[in-house]
Design brief:
110 residues; 5-stranded antiparallel sheet; 73% strand
Length: 110
């Protein structure tokens, strides 16, 4: 069946506080392995006609090779929950989104 949809394009920059913890760094001749956890939460009430909550949690295993200590690779799991409602251009909107899944990546620190 045909559905009804509408798109709202608004940009709102709001800093989100979070906590980050690193656990049990294990080092050896091949490099180091650590577990990292991050949790962030933000609740907004009546900011530009918008209110809602954003929750973000992530758990990561991170590996840094001994020969390249400035590089790292990681694998982890992330869960994001966004709930909100408000008005944009005279139209009311509601958002209820949950995203979750595995993440994999790498980077360079300098």
């Amino acid at each position: 069946g045909a559905g009804i949809s509408e798109s709202v394009d608004e940009t709102l920059v709001v800093p989100m506080p979070f906590l980050r913890a690193e656990f049990a760094t294990v080092g050896g001749p091949l490099g180091s392995l650590s577990a990292v956890g991050e949790v962030g939460y933000l609740e907004i009430s009546d900011l530009g006609g918008t209110e809602g909550a954003f929750f973000d949690v992530e758990a990561i295993l991170e590996y840094s090779p001994a020969m390249l200590p400035f590089a790292h690779a990681f694998i982890g799991y992330r869960y994001v929950d966004l709930d909100g409602s408000g008005d944009s251009g005279g139209d009311a909107f509601t958002v209820d989104v949950q995203l979750q899944g595995w993440t994999i990546g790498g980077g360079i620190r300098f």
